[in-house]
Amino acid sequence: MKISLSYRGLETHNGFERLVALECRKMEKLLSAFDPDLVQCHGAIEFHPKKSEYALSVNLVLPTATLHALHAAKDAHSTVHEAFNELESQLKKHKDKLRHDHEWKRKRGRPRVESSRA
Predict the structure, then answer these.
(1) Are 63 and 85 in contact (CB under 8 A)?
(2) Taken in order 25, 19, 42, 88, is the CA torsion positive or negative?
(3) Sequence-ordered strand ranges (E) for 31-73
(4) pTM value?
(5) What pLDDT shows up at residue 15?
(6) What H or E segment, with its residue span, contains residue 23?
(7) Where do the domains of the chain lie, and which CATH numbers do they carry?
(8) Are 56 and 83 in contact (CB under 8 A)?
(9) Do residues 16 and 30 touch, judged by C-beta distance below 8 A?
(10) pLDDT of residue 118 exceeding 60
């Protein structure tokens, strides 16, 4: 996977590269089905001084789709963690769709209503 980050309004990177690399390593298990050369992760990190919060926008480009997540929080760690959690759930849904899991799930039957006739 290729990772690229851009920073807006930040003078120091506050360990964002390490946090993003750690979260990307966690997602490697889910991305094992895709060719690693074709998977790209683009992130844009902004600091909003009025609100004193960080905003992270992450795009995950796959051969079959492009997934996008955005999260803003007061500290860097929760910003990165929550954005990648959103991206992970989108990736799981996308892989389910590719595998056609919705076609294999068994439909639930209607519950039988017993009528009591006197």
Answers:
(1) no
(2) positive
(3) 40-48, 53-61, 66-73
(4) 0.79
(5) 84
(6) helix 16-27
(7) 2-100 (3.30.160.100)
(8) yes
(9) no
(10) no
